[in-house]
């Protein structure tokens, strides 16, 4: 006796539009889920923080936080919030980190006519940063001048060696994973470790947050 063929069906998602939003499926075209395999990848969402570099500084690159939240929601990100005006956008995304970066950058360019680098990290990555830096004394005594610096591309292997030549007044640097930690000691205002110097040494755009902000963002990410 011939066996009846085994029932097998896969649920396919539609292509992700260029603006980063996820297209919805027509429920009538999807078979019941019982006894069918569904790609787990399509169901995964991740809590993330998107760091915008160099906005709302000295009147330049103005991006209002209310508008930024609305932009993120338009891209179909969920659980959207912001922390202070320096550009810390918290969200939940069904895209990976790189795709989330691209979607936000493209939307900002379209809405504000600004080319703003965006660096995204997951909640798990951020939790690791918040768990501690290489400079425990700075965390305790001067968390406002201890900075976590993250680069758009993988950090150059010789970044710390290059930057050490610019470090003055007790400034310290250390690379830990993808994080560059800078203890500005006396403050960043007069430091020679300027944004352009950091970019060149890291090999791509860098944005930094002080340790107080690092801890607060970790708390807000949950």
The largest pleated sheet is described as: 4 strands, antiparallel
SSE run: EEEHEEHEHHEHEEHEH
Q: Give the fraction of residues assigned to helices.
A: 25-40%
- Distance between the ends: 58 Å
The name of the CATH architecture of the largest domain is 2-Layer Sandwich
Q: Would you identify the regions where 5 or more consecutive residues have pLDDT less than 50? A: 1-41
Q: Number of DSSP strands?
A: 10
What is the structural class?
alpha+beta
What is the C-level CATH assignment of the largest domain?
Alpha Beta
Radius of gyration: 21 Å
Output the number of helix runs: 7
Main sheet: strand order:
4-5-3-6
Mean pLDDT, to the nearest integer, reads 85
User: What is the CATH third-level topology name of the largest domain?
Assistant: Alpha-Beta Plaits
What would the principal axes of the Cα set say about the shape?
Answer: globular
Number of domains as seen in the coordinates: 2
Strand content: 15-25%
Question: What is this structure, in a nutshell?
Answer:
With 222 residues, the protein is α+β, with helices and mostly antiparallel strands. It is 29% helix and 22% strand. The protein folds into two domains: 42-125, 2-Layer Sandwich (Alpha-Beta Plaits); 132-221, 2-Layer Sandwich (Alpha-Beta Plaits), CATH 3.30.70.
């Amino acid at each position: 006796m011939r066996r009846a063929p085994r029932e097998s069906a896969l649920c396919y998602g539609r292509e992700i539009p260029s603006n980063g939003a996820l297209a919805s499926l027509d429920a009538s075209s999807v078979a019941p889920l019982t006894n069918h395999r569904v790609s787990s990848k399509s169901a995964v969402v991740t809590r993330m923080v998107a760091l915008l570099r160099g906005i709302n500084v000295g009147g330049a690159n103005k991006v209002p936080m209310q508008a930024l939240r609305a932009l993120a929601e338009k891209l179909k990100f969920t659980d959207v919030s912001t922390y202070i005006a320096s550009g810390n956008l918290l969200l939940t995304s069904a895209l990976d980190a790189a795709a989330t970066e691209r979607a936000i950058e493209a939307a900002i360019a379209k809405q504000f006519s600004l080319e703003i680098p965006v660096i995204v990290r997951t909640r798990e990555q951020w939790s690791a940063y918040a768990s501690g830096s290489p400079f425990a004394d700075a965390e305790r005594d001067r968390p406002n001048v201890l900075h976590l610096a993250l680069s758009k591309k993988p950090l150059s292997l010789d970044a710390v060696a290059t930057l050490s030549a610019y470090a003055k007044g007790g400034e310290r640097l250390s690379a830990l994973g993808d994080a560059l930690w800078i203890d500005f000691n006396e403050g960043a205002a007069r430091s020679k470790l300027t944004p352009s110097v950091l970019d060149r040494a890291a090999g791509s755009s860098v944005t930094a947050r002080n340790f107080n902000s690092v801890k607060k963002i970790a708390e807000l990410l949950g």
